[in-house]
Specification:
0% of the residues lie in helices and 54% in strands. The protein is mostly beta strands. The protein has one domain: Sandwich (Jelly Rolls), CATH 2.60.120.260. Strands 1, 2, 4, 5, 7, 12 and 14 form a seven-stranded antiparallel β-sheet that branches.
Amino acid sequence: MTMPFPGHAAGGGGGGGNPTQEFFTPVCGVLNGVMGTSNGWTYADLNASGEKGLTSFYIPDDYSSLTEATIWIHAIGGGAAENWDIDSNYAADGEAYNQHTESDTGTTYNVTGNTMYEIDASGILTGIAAGDYCTVTLTSATTGHDCRVIGVRIKYQ
């Protein structure tokens, strides 16, 4: 299920341009981990190396360019170098499922435990286009770097 953010359309600054729009898609699966709910949040609970939280979504037909892409997480532990890998696969109807594959396995994240964070995912969606079907995955690369993946937010023009 993809949910638009109503009321978030804004003009392109001083008369013209494409309006900015955004949508949020909740986590839809987990690999080697468990799905859970807490305080109203549904999440993929990642607490061991190799566990993955996944989201899937469609890029709307009115898409022109990416403004922002984030993976929304709840950091369970905290630290100066939490090691989470992010990757994507995306393709249009009629293309190979992995027509476009991008990843970021080098970035680590400075987080405070029990805090919500947006992880920048724009670097793994550089070639998305209107009509693409996308999967974004966050993988716990190190045991003890626990988090709960909640979903992905896409902001576009």
